[in-house]
Predict the structure.
Amino acid sequence: MIRCIECEADLKIPSDAIEGEIITCPDCGASYELVKQREGFNIKPAQVVGEDWGE
Amino acid sequence: MGRIGRLYILYDVVRWEEKALYQAALRKGIDVRMIDTKDILIDLNNDSMPIDDGNYDSSIYLQRCVSYFRSIHLTAALEGKGGRVINTLLCSLIAGNKLFAHTALVKNKIDTPKSILAFTQDGVLKALEMLGYPAVLKPTVGSWGRLIALISDRHAAEAIIEDREHMSPLYQVYYLQEYVKRPPRDIRAIVVGDRVVGAIYRYSASDTWKTNMALGGRAEACPITKELEDICIRACRAVNGTIAGVDLMEDESRGLLVHEVNPTTEFKNVAKVSNPNIADEMIEYIENGLDG
Protein backbone atom coordinates (compact mmCIF):
# COMPACT_ATOMS: atom_id res chain seq x y z
CA MET A 1 0.00 0.00 0.00
CA ILE A 2 1.32 3.44 -0.93
CA ARG A 3 0.21 6.43 1.10
CA CYS A 4 0.09 10.10 0.18
CA ILE A 5 3.11 11.93 1.63
CA GLU A 6 0.95 14.98 2.38
CA CYS A 7 -2.21 13.53 3.93
CA GLU A 8 -1.55 9.78 4.23
CA ALA A 9 -4.56 8.80 2.13
CA ASP A 10 -4.27 5.51 0.24
CA LEU A 11 -3.08 6.00 -3.34
CA LYS A 12 -4.38 3.74 -6.08
CA ILE A 13 -1.79 2.68 -8.65
CA PRO A 14 -3.44 1.83 -12.01
CA SER A 15 -2.99 -1.81 -13.07
CA ASP A 16 -1.44 -0.61 -16.38
CA ALA A 17 0.78 2.02 -14.73
CA ILE A 18 4.06 2.97 -16.37
CA GLU A 19 7.22 4.59 -15.08
CA GLY A 20 6.95 8.37 -14.86
CA GLU A 21 3.15 8.42 -14.85
CA ILE A 22 1.57 11.09 -12.69
CA ILE A 23 -1.01 10.10 -10.10
CA THR A 24 -3.02 12.47 -7.95
CA CYS A 25 -4.13 11.94 -4.36
CA PRO A 26 -7.94 11.73 -4.35
CA ASP A 27 -8.11 13.40 -0.93
CA CYS A 28 -5.68 16.34 -1.02
CA GLY A 29 -4.82 16.66 -4.72
CA ALA A 30 -1.06 16.25 -4.31
CA SER A 31 0.61 14.93 -7.47
CA TYR A 32 3.20 12.15 -7.54
CA GLU A 33 5.41 10.62 -10.21
CA LEU A 34 5.58 6.83 -10.26
CA VAL A 35 9.07 5.39 -9.83
CA LYS A 36 9.62 1.77 -10.82
CA GLN A 37 10.93 -0.56 -8.11
CA ARG A 38 12.03 -4.17 -8.40
CA GLU A 39 8.41 -5.01 -7.65
CA GLY A 40 5.74 -2.44 -8.34
CA PHE A 41 6.13 1.32 -7.94
CA ASN A 42 7.10 3.91 -5.41
CA ILE A 43 6.22 7.60 -5.58
CA LYS A 44 8.06 10.89 -5.52
CA PRO A 45 6.52 14.39 -5.47
CA ALA A 46 5.86 15.53 -9.03
CA GLN A 47 6.77 18.93 -10.40
CA VAL A 48 3.36 20.42 -11.07
CA VAL A 49 4.18 23.19 -13.52
CA GLY A 50 7.26 24.98 -14.84
CA GLU A 51 7.46 28.44 -16.38
CA ASP A 52 8.12 27.02 -19.85
CA TRP A 53 5.73 24.08 -19.60
CA GLY A 54 3.09 23.61 -22.21
CA GLU A 55 2.16 21.92 -25.43
CA MET B 1 6.49 -3.84 -37.49
CA GLY B 2 6.24 -1.22 -40.22
CA ARG B 3 8.94 0.81 -41.87
CA ILE B 4 10.44 2.29 -38.72
CA GLY B 5 12.88 0.71 -36.30
CA ARG B 6 12.54 1.60 -32.66
CA LEU B 7 10.21 4.36 -31.48
CA TYR B 8 11.42 6.49 -28.59
CA ILE B 9 8.84 8.58 -26.76
CA LEU B 10 10.74 11.45 -25.13
CA TYR B 11 9.04 12.72 -21.98
CA ASP B 12 9.61 14.67 -18.81
CA VAL B 13 6.12 14.10 -17.45
CA VAL B 14 3.95 11.16 -18.46
CA ARG B 15 0.60 12.76 -19.13
CA TRP B 16 -2.48 10.90 -20.36
CA GLU B 17 -1.24 11.49 -23.92
CA GLU B 18 2.21 9.92 -23.51
CA LYS B 19 0.68 6.83 -21.90
CA ALA B 20 -1.90 6.58 -24.70
CA LEU B 21 0.84 6.83 -27.35
CA TYR B 22 2.95 4.20 -25.59
CA GLN B 23 0.02 1.81 -25.33
CA ALA B 24 -0.95 2.43 -28.98
CA ALA B 25 2.59 1.60 -30.09
CA LEU B 26 2.54 -1.60 -28.01
CA ARG B 27 -0.76 -2.59 -29.60
CA LYS B 28 0.83 -2.21 -33.03
CA GLY B 29 3.78 -4.40 -32.02
CA ILE B 30 6.24 -1.53 -32.40
CA ASP B 31 9.53 -1.66 -30.50
CA VAL B 32 8.79 1.35 -28.28
CA ARG B 33 10.75 2.80 -25.35
CA MET B 34 9.78 5.56 -22.94
CA ILE B 35 12.73 7.88 -22.31
CA ASP B 36 12.79 10.14 -19.25
CA THR B 37 14.63 13.11 -20.70
CA LYS B 38 15.45 14.55 -17.29
CA ASP B 39 18.11 11.84 -16.91
CA ILE B 40 19.75 12.23 -20.33
CA LEU B 41 23.41 13.15 -20.83
CA ILE B 42 24.44 13.91 -24.40
CA ASP B 43 28.03 14.05 -25.60
CA LEU B 44 27.79 16.64 -28.35
CA ASN B 45 31.22 15.86 -29.79
CA ASN B 46 30.70 12.39 -31.15
CA ASP B 47 28.14 10.80 -33.41
CA SER B 48 26.81 8.13 -31.06
CA MET B 49 23.20 8.36 -30.02
CA PRO B 50 22.88 8.48 -26.23
CA ILE B 51 19.53 6.75 -26.16
CA ASP B 52 19.90 4.21 -28.87
CA ASP B 53 21.80 0.99 -29.31
CA GLY B 54 22.81 1.01 -32.92
CA ASN B 55 19.75 1.01 -35.15
CA TYR B 56 19.06 4.69 -35.15
CA ASP B 57 19.01 5.08 -38.90
CA SER B 58 15.45 3.83 -38.83
CA SER B 59 14.48 4.99 -35.36
CA ILE B 60 12.04 7.78 -34.65
CA TYR B 61 12.14 10.09 -31.63
CA LEU B 62 8.69 11.37 -30.70
CA GLN B 63 9.25 14.61 -28.81
CA ARG B 64 6.69 14.91 -26.01
CA CYS B 65 8.47 17.03 -23.37
CA VAL B 66 6.29 19.62 -21.63
CA SER B 67 9.31 21.83 -20.94
CA TYR B 68 9.71 23.98 -24.06
CA PHE B 69 13.37 24.75 -23.56
CA ARG B 70 14.26 21.14 -22.73
CA SER B 71 12.31 20.03 -25.78
CA ILE B 72 13.99 22.30 -28.33
CA HIS B 73 17.51 21.74 -27.00
CA LEU B 74 17.10 17.97 -26.87
CA THR B 75 15.60 17.94 -30.37
CA ALA B 76 18.54 20.05 -31.60
CA ALA B 77 21.04 17.64 -30.05
CA LEU B 78 19.34 14.57 -31.53
CA GLU B 79 18.88 16.09 -34.98
CA GLY B 80 22.48 17.24 -34.90
CA LYS B 81 23.49 13.61 -34.53
CA GLY B 82 21.29 12.57 -37.44
CA GLY B 83 18.25 11.50 -35.44
CA ARG B 84 14.75 11.81 -36.87
CA VAL B 85 12.54 13.72 -34.43
CA ILE B 86 8.81 14.48 -34.55
CA ASN B 87 8.24 17.37 -34.64
CA THR B 88 11.46 18.75 -36.09
CA LEU B 89 13.54 21.45 -34.47
CA LEU B 90 12.40 23.92 -37.11
CA CYS B 91 8.76 23.18 -36.33
CA SER B 92 9.31 23.37 -32.56
CA LEU B 93 11.13 26.68 -32.85
CA ILE B 94 8.49 28.26 -35.07
CA ALA B 95 5.37 26.81 -33.47
CA GLY B 96 6.76 27.13 -29.94
CA ASN B 97 6.90 30.90 -30.30
CA LYS B 98 3.55 32.57 -30.91
CA LEU B 99 5.08 35.46 -32.84
CA PHE B 100 7.24 33.23 -35.05
CA ALA B 101 4.19 31.07 -35.72
CA HIS B 102 2.08 34.12 -36.48
CA THR B 103 4.51 35.34 -39.13
CA ALA B 104 4.69 31.86 -40.71
CA LEU B 105 0.89 31.70 -40.86
CA VAL B 106 0.57 35.17 -42.40
CA LYS B 107 3.29 34.37 -44.93
CA ASN B 108 1.25 31.34 -45.97
CA LYS B 109 -1.92 33.41 -46.31
CA ILE B 110 -3.68 31.81 -43.35
CA ASP B 111 -6.12 34.12 -41.56
CA THR B 112 -4.98 35.11 -38.06
CA PRO B 113 -6.12 37.66 -35.46
CA LYS B 114 -4.68 41.15 -36.07
CA SER B 115 -1.49 41.41 -34.03
CA ILE B 116 1.20 44.00 -33.39
CA LEU B 117 4.72 43.66 -32.01
CA ALA B 118 6.07 46.39 -29.71
CA PHE B 119 9.03 46.77 -27.36
CA THR B 120 8.40 49.87 -25.23
CA GLN B 121 5.60 51.39 -23.18
CA ASP B 122 4.97 54.06 -25.82
CA GLY B 123 4.93 51.40 -28.53
CA VAL B 124 2.49 49.24 -26.60
CA LEU B 125 0.12 52.12 -25.92
CA LYS B 126 0.17 53.12 -29.60
CA ALA B 127 -0.43 49.51 -30.65
CA LEU B 128 -3.39 49.25 -28.28
CA GLU B 129 -4.93 52.42 -29.74
CA MET B 130 -4.60 50.80 -33.18
CA LEU B 131 -6.11 47.48 -32.06
CA GLY B 132 -8.75 49.06 -29.82
CA TYR B 133 -9.64 48.08 -26.25
CA PRO B 134 -10.03 45.44 -25.02
CA ALA B 135 -6.98 43.74 -26.49
CA VAL B 136 -4.90 40.74 -25.53
CA LEU B 137 -1.24 40.61 -24.51
CA LYS B 138 0.43 37.22 -24.92
CA PRO B 139 3.93 36.06 -24.00
CA THR B 140 5.63 34.79 -27.16
CA VAL B 141 6.61 31.57 -25.35
CA GLY B 142 4.19 29.91 -22.96
CA SER B 143 1.14 27.72 -22.81
CA TRP B 144 -2.01 26.81 -20.94
CA GLY B 145 -3.09 30.46 -20.87
CA ARG B 146 -0.29 31.53 -18.52
CA LEU B 147 0.42 35.28 -18.38
CA ILE B 148 -2.06 36.05 -21.14
CA ALA B 149 -3.72 39.33 -20.20
CA LEU B 150 -6.97 40.88 -21.38
CA ILE B 151 -6.27 44.62 -21.35
CA SER B 152 -9.45 46.59 -20.83
CA ASP B 153 -8.12 50.16 -20.97
CA ARG B 154 -5.04 52.38 -20.93
CA HIS B 155 -4.70 52.27 -17.11
CA ALA B 156 -4.67 48.46 -17.13
CA ALA B 157 -2.11 48.55 -19.93
CA GLU B 158 0.22 50.84 -17.98
CA ALA B 159 0.01 48.61 -14.90
CA ILE B 160 0.76 45.46 -16.90
CA ILE B 161 3.67 47.09 -18.73
CA GLU B 162 5.15 48.25 -15.43
CA ASP B 163 5.04 44.67 -14.13
CA ARG B 164 6.54 43.28 -17.34
CA GLU B 165 9.44 45.73 -17.21
CA HIS B 166 10.59 43.97 -14.01
CA MET B 167 10.40 40.50 -15.52
CA SER B 168 12.87 38.63 -17.73
CA PRO B 169 13.60 40.18 -21.17
CA LEU B 170 11.31 37.76 -22.98
CA TYR B 171 8.36 39.51 -21.30
CA GLN B 172 9.43 42.86 -22.73
CA VAL B 173 8.63 41.53 -26.19
CA TYR B 174 5.01 42.67 -26.42
CA TYR B 175 2.90 40.51 -28.73
CA LEU B 176 -0.46 42.26 -28.77
CA GLN B 177 -3.57 40.90 -30.39
CA GLU B 178 -7.08 42.12 -31.12
CA TYR B 179 -9.81 40.68 -28.92
CA VAL B 180 -11.69 38.64 -31.52
CA LYS B 181 -15.49 38.88 -31.48
CA ARG B 182 -16.30 35.21 -31.22
CA PRO B 183 -18.63 32.78 -29.44
CA PRO B 184 -17.43 31.84 -25.90
CA ARG B 185 -15.36 29.03 -27.34
CA ASP B 186 -12.47 28.24 -29.65
CA ILE B 187 -11.58 25.14 -31.66
CA ARG B 188 -8.75 22.65 -31.12
CA ALA B 189 -8.14 20.39 -34.12
CA ILE B 190 -5.56 17.60 -34.24
CA VAL B 191 -3.65 17.29 -37.50
CA VAL B 192 -1.84 14.06 -38.34
CA GLY B 193 -0.05 14.28 -41.67
CA ASP B 194 -2.58 15.44 -44.22
CA ARG B 195 -5.70 14.77 -42.13
CA VAL B 196 -7.59 16.31 -39.24
CA VAL B 197 -8.29 13.31 -37.03
CA GLY B 198 -10.38 15.04 -34.39
CA ALA B 199 -11.68 18.45 -33.33
CA ILE B 200 -13.39 19.97 -30.33
CA TYR B 201 -14.98 23.21 -29.29
CA ARG B 202 -13.36 24.44 -26.09
CA TYR B 203 -15.78 26.49 -24.00
CA SER B 204 -14.44 28.86 -21.35
CA ALA B 205 -15.04 28.00 -17.73
CA SER B 206 -17.64 30.31 -16.16
CA ASP B 207 -15.11 32.47 -14.34
CA THR B 208 -12.64 33.20 -17.18
CA TRP B 209 -12.58 34.44 -20.78
CA LYS B 210 -9.79 31.98 -21.66
CA THR B 211 -10.81 28.70 -23.28
CA ASN B 212 -7.83 26.57 -22.21
CA MET B 213 -8.78 23.13 -20.94
CA ALA B 214 -6.03 23.54 -18.34
CA LEU B 215 -8.15 26.35 -16.85
CA GLY B 216 -11.26 24.24 -16.48
CA GLY B 217 -12.86 24.74 -19.90
CA ARG B 218 -15.41 22.30 -21.30
CA ALA B 219 -15.09 20.29 -24.52
CA GLU B 220 -17.70 19.36 -27.14
CA ALA B 221 -17.19 17.59 -30.46
CA CYS B 222 -16.68 19.95 -33.42
CA PRO B 223 -17.64 18.83 -36.93
CA ILE B 224 -14.63 18.50 -39.23
CA THR B 225 -15.72 20.52 -42.24
CA LYS B 226 -13.74 20.82 -45.44
CA GLU B 227 -12.98 24.45 -44.54
CA LEU B 228 -11.70 23.49 -41.08
CA GLU B 229 -9.58 20.65 -42.40
CA ASP B 230 -8.08 22.78 -45.16
CA ILE B 231 -7.02 25.67 -42.92
CA CYS B 232 -5.65 23.32 -40.20
CA ILE B 233 -3.51 21.33 -42.62
CA ARG B 234 -2.17 24.53 -44.17
CA ALA B 235 -1.41 25.91 -40.69
CA CYS B 236 0.42 22.74 -39.69
CA ARG B 237 2.48 22.83 -42.88
CA ALA B 238 3.20 26.54 -42.43
CA VAL B 239 5.15 25.74 -39.27
CA ASN B 240 6.75 22.63 -40.81
CA GLY B 241 4.70 20.35 -38.57
CA THR B 242 3.52 16.80 -39.16
CA ILE B 243 1.57 16.11 -35.95
CA ALA B 244 0.13 19.17 -34.23
CA GLY B 245 -2.81 20.74 -32.45
CA VAL B 246 -4.21 23.77 -34.26
CA ASP B 247 -6.22 26.34 -32.29
CA LEU B 248 -8.74 28.52 -34.07
CA MET B 249 -11.31 31.18 -33.28
CA GLU B 250 -14.56 31.80 -35.14
CA ASP B 251 -14.66 35.50 -35.94
CA GLU B 252 -18.18 36.86 -36.50
CA SER B 253 -17.31 38.35 -39.88
CA ARG B 254 -14.03 36.80 -41.05
CA GLY B 255 -14.68 33.16 -40.19
CA LEU B 256 -11.90 30.88 -38.96
CA LEU B 257 -8.73 32.50 -37.63
CA VAL B 258 -5.74 30.41 -36.53
CA HIS B 259 -4.16 31.70 -33.34
CA GLU B 260 -1.80 28.88 -32.36
CA VAL B 261 -0.18 25.65 -33.54
CA ASN B 262 1.01 23.28 -30.79
CA PRO B 263 3.93 20.99 -31.70
CA THR B 264 3.61 18.66 -28.67
CA THR B 265 -0.14 18.87 -28.55
CA GLU B 266 -2.34 17.54 -25.80
CA PHE B 267 -5.30 15.59 -27.15
CA LYS B 268 -6.99 13.94 -24.17
CA ASN B 269 -10.17 15.99 -24.51
CA VAL B 270 -10.28 15.55 -28.29
CA ALA B 271 -9.98 11.78 -27.77
CA LYS B 272 -12.75 11.86 -25.16
CA VAL B 273 -15.37 13.66 -27.23
CA SER B 274 -14.29 13.48 -30.89
CA ASN B 275 -12.10 10.49 -31.79
CA PRO B 276 -10.97 7.90 -29.22
CA ASN B 277 -8.35 6.51 -31.63
CA ILE B 278 -6.16 9.60 -31.99
CA ALA B 279 -3.09 8.03 -30.38
CA ASP B 280 -3.43 5.00 -32.67
CA GLU B 281 -3.74 7.29 -35.70
CA MET B 282 -0.58 9.16 -34.70
CA ILE B 283 1.34 5.92 -34.22
CA GLU B 284 0.05 4.52 -37.50
CA TYR B 285 1.20 7.65 -39.31
CA ILE B 286 4.65 7.38 -37.72
CA GLU B 287 4.85 3.66 -38.47
CA ASN B 288 4.01 4.24 -42.11
CA GLY B 289 7.04 6.37 -42.56
CA LEU B 290 5.77 9.92 -42.22
CA ASP B 291 4.85 10.06 -45.90
CA GLY B 292 8.48 9.45 -46.77
The radius of gyration of chain B is 20 Å. Chain B has a mean pLDDT of 92. The CA atoms of residues 193 and 242 of chain B lie 5 Å apart. Residues 115-178 of chain B form a domain with the Dna Ligase; domain 1 fold (CATH 3.30.1490.20).
